[in-house]
């Protein structure tokens, strides 16, 4: 199953709920891009240095330095070279870094194999931006989950505040809009709905109702 959509649409929570209900494995591809961004920051490589970040990503994959484990609370626990970076990758700075590094074709190519390997056996929910268009265009069920920018920013802002981070709603909204523009406007694997993906707009839906609607669509499709 492929679930794509912009930042803050509720993908992570919903993908986790669907994976649990179906007893599927959850693959959070955004966490992969975030991990590469964190590694680049630590190495002092600018997010915009495509070739260097690409080489870094290839190296991480070749050394099996990225690992993702199921976690009851977080959904996915992420390790970078054995270190738990699950919290370190969830900052606004790394979100923005992930959006920049993911625009480089070398970085995308390095992570594509990892994503295809994770999904090839089936029984997997992959969430990201290009799963239905590039990674698994033949996925059995494809969703494009979205919501208005204001709604997405409000959800994101509530999350950040709950984690004790101090940022204004206006700043969060500006970040969401900037990330949308970058993700939709890039040349390689831009964020867009696959023609055959089911559109779900969660603007005025609760998480429960969104999951219910998607679960019904899965049942109908299988
Ligand atoms: O979903 P999440 O907010 O964790 O993703 C972080 C960033 O990683 C996105 O803004 C996007 O630029 C990038 N990404 C991507 N392709 C994916 C998943 C994430 O380009 N399949």
UniProtKB/TrEMBL annotation:
InterPro entries: Cytidylate_kin, Cytidylate_kinase_dom, P-loop_NTPase. Pfam families: Cytidylate_kin. Keywords: ATP-binding, Cytoplasm, Kinase, Nucleotide-binding, Transferase. ATP binds at residues 5-13. Residues 2-219 form the Cytidylate kinase domain. GO terms for cellular component: cytosol. Its EC number is 2.7.4.25. It catalyses: CMP + ATP = CDP + ADP; dCMP + ATP = dCDP + ADP. It is found in: Cytoplasm. One of its GO terms (biological process) is pyrimidine nucleotide metabolic process. GO terms for molecular function: ATP binding; CMP kinase activity; dCMP kinase activity. The keyword ATP-binding applies. Belongs to the cytidylate kinase family. Type 1 subfamily. HAMAP family: Cytidyl_kinase_type1 (MF_00238). This is Cytidylate kinase. It comes from Labilithrix luteola.
């Amino acid at each position: 199953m492929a679930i794509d959509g912009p930042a803050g649409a509720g993908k992570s929570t919903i993908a986790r709920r669907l994976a649990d209900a179906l007893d599927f494995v959850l693959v959070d591809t955004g966490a992969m891009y975030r991990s590469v961004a964190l590694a680049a920051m630590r190495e002092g490589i600018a997010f915009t240095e495509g070739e260097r970040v690409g080489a870094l990503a290839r190296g991480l994959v070749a050394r099996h330095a990225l690992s993702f484990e199921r976690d009851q609370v977080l959904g996915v626990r992420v390790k970078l070279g054995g270190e738990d970076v699950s919290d370190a990758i969830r900052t606004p700075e790394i979100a923005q870094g992930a959006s920049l590094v993911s625009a480089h074709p070398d970085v995308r190519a390095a992570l594509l194999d990892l994503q295809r390997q994770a999904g090839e056996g089936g029984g997997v929910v992959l969430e990201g931006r290009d799963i239905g268009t590039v990674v698994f265009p033949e996925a059995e069920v494809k969703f494009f989950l979205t919501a208005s920018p204001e709604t997405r920013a409000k959800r994101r802002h509530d999350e950040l505040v709950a984690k004790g981070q101090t940022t204004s709603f206006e700043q969060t909204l500006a970040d969401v809009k900037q990330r949308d523009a970058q993700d939709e406007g890039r040349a390689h694997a831009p964020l867009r709905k696959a023609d055959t993906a089911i559109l779900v707009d969660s603007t005025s839906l609760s998480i429960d109702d969104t999951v219910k609607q998607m679960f019904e669509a899965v049942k109908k499709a299988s």
